[in-house]
Amino acid sequence: MQKLPEFRSFLELVMGIQEPWHITGLNVDTENCQIDIDIDFMTGAAFTCPKCGQDECSVHDTRDKRWRHLNLFQYKVYVHARVPRIRCPQDGTHQVLLPWAREGSGFTLLFESLVMELAQVMPVKAMADMLGEHDTRLWRIINHHIAEAVNSQDLSNLESVGVDETARRKGHRYITSFIDLKTCAPVFVTEGKGKGTLKEFLEFIKSHGGAPSKIKDFSCDMSPAFIAGIGEYFPCARITFDKFHVIKMMNEALDNVRRKEQKEFEELKGSRWLWLRKEKNLKQSQKEKLNKLIGSKAAPQTTKAYGISQSLKRVYSSNEAEWAELALKGWYRWASHSRLKPVVEFARTVKEHWNGIINYFHSRWTNSILEALNSLFKAFSARARGYRTVRNAISAFYLACGKLKFDLPRLTPE
Ligand SMILES: [Zn+2]
Description:
- The chain is of the alpha/beta class.
- It has helices spanning 4-15, 109-119, 124-131, 135-151, 195-206, 224-233, 243-261, 272-276, 284-295, 300-316, 321-336, 341-352, 354-358, 360-363, 368-383, 390-401, and strands at 21-29, 34-41, 59-72, 75-88, 92-95, 160-167, 174-180, 186-191, 217-220, 238-241.
- Helix 2 (109-119) packs across helix 4 (135-151), helix 7 (243-261) runs antiparallel to helix 10 (300-316) and helix 10 runs antiparallel to helix 11 (321-336).
- It is elongated, with a radius of gyration of 30 Å.
- Bound molecules: zinc ion.
- Zinc ion binds next to loops.
């Protein structure tokens, strides 16, 4: 092809190759669907020291390197170059900064942008098959950019935090996640659970411009480890117990009553969801069935527990903190005198966590965002059949949030 010089300028233009770099060779392998592009710097070129910024450092030596770039049509594209190391009088010998790739990566920045965009919408294994790369190499890219984004956070305005723990899979190791309740952005995700994670979180925010004294609110479930950790490391923070966890515990108590009673009353078998689901989410036939069970007085204990659970939900629908506290007191009297063992025990738990439950009516914080993220993360985890390493699982959690900003060239115009 005689037009090669023109094609070369075209490639330099679209690839953003600028002086002192230029394209020196091109090989098209039609059999393997691969294009190899050679890039080199002009003889005598000098470079900037990556450490101190001093210009005009002369080249000390070079190393041959190769990067996978974005595909060109159906062709895989590889870029090859000899990468110069300069000798700076002040800092010694260092590899120069390349406009198309970061040090140590076998991919161009644009390819890494593609990986980060795809990772937010598809499992990494599927992406690896599509791109013809091993998923371990892609995870390395993902983990790198997530770590960078997490570390570049400025947490000086962080005031309200939601914390929750989740297992990667049933019975697997836990990860604990902290989010900014105001922005819904993930702040810190770590392996493990319990009090120790609060200490790690404290160290993390201190090293990112935040201060424990600035944290005014925590939202969490009633786990003693969270309560102890927040009390010890964030003594100024107010705790709001997540209302969905409170209601979930009430539902568990109700279901325990039903399961015990169904030994006597056959009609209760298979009726679990009728009692637990919100009434508005029941089908007409289910509503009728539930009303019939309640009306027939066939299951007095379950019916009573159901009334108590509905009453708790009404407490939560109140808009006014003082009224809510009065209503909760009334609810507590009823529940604690119900003579239904699981309900009495739950009422005791409510009493022991009274202030944190009432705080909801002042702060209005819940962990609904974290709950949503947890289920998204589990769905992704199931599709990916697990993540092999904890680090990958943590990255997947950050990706599920979709809130991190990566320092990479954009693939699409703004
Ligand atoms: Zn230097």
